Amino acid sequence: MRKASKVLIISLVVFSLAFNSILAVVLYTDYLHLGQMLKLVLLVKGKALKPVTIGSMLDGAAGGMVQALQDPYSEYLTTENFGRLQEQMEGIFGGVGLILDASKAEELKVQGVLSGSPAERAGVQKGDLIVAINGKAVADITAMEAADLMKGPVGSEVSLSVLRGKGARREFKLKRELINIKSVEGKILRIPEPVAYIKINAFSDHTAAELSEYWNGLPEVKGVVLDLRDDPGGSLEAAVEAGNYFLPRGPVVHLVYRDGKRETYEVRGGKLKVPLMVLVNKGTASAAEILAAAVQDTASGLIIGTRTYGKGVVQTIYDLGGNTGLKLTTAKYLSPLGKDINQVGIRPDVAVEKHGDTDNVLAEALKLLAERVNSFSFR
C-alpha cells in the first residue's frame, strides 16, 4: 500500500511539474497566446451585449489567424465561401451571367457578360456600372455581398440599377438561371486565310476537355489567336494541360516553396505547327499568366496587349471538414526561364491598348498573323 502511495505521489509530482511547465509556456511566451485567447473567449461569451455562438467566434478566430499573414490571396473559407469557391472551380452556379470587376472601391463594373445568359438577353453590357442590387446601394456593401445578391434559386428575380456612360440610370429585372461558365470558346476568322480564335475565360476543371474537343474539331488553319484577356486564372493544373497545345516539350512553370524546394511542371507539347498570337491585358492573372509567360519564354508566339496583372503566387485549397476550408498561399511560381512576375506582370512583346468598341488588339494580332503565315506549314 505504501509503495502504491509512493508511486501515486511521484506521478502527481511529475504531472504537477509538467502542468506547471505547460502553464509557464502559455503565460510567459508568445506561443499562440493561448492564455489570452481563453480569457477572450470567456469574456465575449459571458459579457458581450450581443450574444454570439462559440462556432461564430471560432470562425472569426480562424479568419484572424489567416489575416495575420497579411496575404491578400490567403483566406479562411466559411461554409458559404467554401461552397462558392467549389462552384467557381466546377464552372457551374446559379445566377444571371455577369462577370464583375470590383477592383475599385465603391464601384462594381461589369467586366463581362456570358453568352446566352439572362443578363445578355436583357441588354446588360460590358462596362456598365452597377449602382444598386435589389435596392441596396453597391457603395454600402462589399463585393462579396454584391455577388451573393446576384445568386438565388433558379427562376427567382434580381433587380439591377445600372449606369452606362453619361446616360440615364437603367433598371433591369433578371430571372436567375443555372449558369454554366464555358471555359473555352472559339471561332474561325479569316485574314483571308483561316485562323483559329480561341478564348479561355478561366481555367477550371473543364478546361482541358473543352480545349481538346475544340482543337480536335479544327479545320485546317494557318494560325492561332489565344485570347487570355480578362482571364482571372484558376486551376494551375488546367493551365499546364492547356500548355500542351501551345508550347514545345519542356517546362511550363517552376513552383518554389517556403523551404526552397522547387517543383517543375512540364508538358509533352508539340501540337502547335502554326504562328501563335496571345492576347493579354491587366485582367490576365495567375494561371493565365503562367501560360502567357511560358509562351513568351519559349518564343512559341507573340504576346500582344497590355501588361498583365502580376499574380505570381500559388494557393492550395485545404478541406478543413465541416464544409469549411483554407485557401493558403504555399508557393511562388517562376516562368520557364526563372522570371518572377509577382506584382510585376508580363510585359507584352507588342504593346496595344483597346480603345472603345473597336478591338484593335485583335486587329493587330490578325495583322501580324497575316505577315507570318507564309513561313509556316500546317500541322
Which topology of the largest domain does CATH recognise? Answer: 2-enoyl-CoA Hydratase, Chain A, domain 1
Average of pLDDT: 85
Strand content: 25-35%
In terms of structural class, how would the helical and strand content be classed?
alpha+beta
End-to-end CA span: 91 Å
* Molecular shape: globular
Count of individual beta strands: 19
Return Rg in Å. 27 Å
Q: Which H/E pattern describes the elements?
A: HHHEHEEEHEEHEEEEEHEHEEEHEEEEH
- CATH architecture assignment of the largest domain: Alpha-Beta Complex
Poorly predicted spans: 1-19
* Most strands sheet: 6 strands, antiparallel
What share of residues is helical? 25-40%
How many structural domains in the coordinates?
3
CATH class of the largest domain: Alpha Beta
Task: State the helix count.
Answer: 10
CATH level-four homologous superfamily name of the largest domain: 2-enoyl-CoA Hydratase, Chain A, domain 1
What tags apply to this protein structure?
379 residues, alpha+beta, 2-enoyl-CoA Hydratase, Chain A, domain 1, six-stranded antiparallel sheet, disordered N terminus
Walkthrough of the structure:
- The chain has helices at residues 2-28, 34-47, 54-67, 79-90, 118-122, 143-150, 207-216, 236-246, 287-297, 360-372, and strands spanning 75-77, 92-95, 98-101, 108-113, 129-133, 136-137, 157-163, 170-175, 177-180, 184-190, 194-200, 224-227, 250-257, 262-267, 276-280, 302-305, 313-321, 324-334, 350-351.
- By secondary structure, the chain is α+β, with helices and mostly antiparallel strands.
- It folds into three domains: 2-77, no CATH class; 92-180, Pdz3 Domain (Roll); 184-375, 2-enoyl-CoA Hydratase, Chain A, domain 1, CATH 3.90.226.10.
- The strands form four sheets. Strands 3, 4, 5, 6, 7 and 8 form a six-stranded antiparallel beta sheet that branches.
- α8 runs parallel beside α9 (287-297).
- It starts with a helix and ends in a 7-residue tail after the last helix.
